[in-house]
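Job type: complex structure
Entries:
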Amino acid sequence: MRWMWIDRIVELVPGEKLVAVKHISMAEEHIHEHFPSTPNRKPMPIMPMSLVVEGMAQTAGVLVGHAEGFKEKVVLAKVSKAELTREPTPGCTLRYTAIIEQRTAVGASTKGIVELIDPQATANSAESAQVIGSIDLLFSHLDNNMTGVQYPKENFVFSESFKTLMETSGIEADF
Amino acid sequence: MERSEILDKVRELLVDALAVDDDEVTPEATLIGDLGAESIDILDISFKLEQDFGFKIAQGELFPEGVTKDPDFVQDGVVTEKGLELLKERVPHFNLDTLKADPSVENVAKIFTVDALVTFCEQKLQTA
């Protein structure tokens, strides 16, 4: 399962909202090569923020694709806003909630919230998830692009990996 | 809504959509040339206009699509009379004077100014 940055879809309201989770594991190769430090903290393994954005892009992208019956080639066109206040570390779970703000034949805009579920924090408090950021995105439907560029007929965006994700999440989808 | 009020809202929206400084968003500034907008930004701006002003924008209503690729409307890199007529009909918020004076196809993007965007909003609000 290459380049999948969400593990399971836990809620889907078609055309409106999708919630997905991603468990961060020390076994992931990218973690082995990403040890940022700060003036107050020694280097430690952290999931890169760019991949957190990709996780939201996949969450929101599936939501937009599902709304179009997976007929459109939905691609991330613009990161309108991305703010993250805490670094996700192995052992934590990220929960992405994406909401469609606007959707037309040409594309869609989404708003997203990123929450972090830290098992250590959860053990010590009633709060199970902490909001650590917001990511707003803009998607384009490739075949309706303004420049008139033609793309292959096959929907290369929603690959077999996405189909597996839908199936393991118990969501029926006709790709 | 007063035109100056529309300009203020449009300026705020463009600063957000195109990551430009507010003093760059003058009425004469061109979106694609001066403010660096790309085709996907037109969709973003269109969505933001709908949200901020409460009207609906049909595909191609804000900025013409396909005109410059149609041989009926552009020949040898120049917008034809038929092309100019179509632009006048499809996008009445654009001031076509400069394009009429020099109808080179590269000049089509130059008619999409902040002022044209304000006029578009003004016209949409009047017909809403």
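Summary: Strands of chain B lie at 74-75, 78-79. Chain B has a mean pLDDT of 90.
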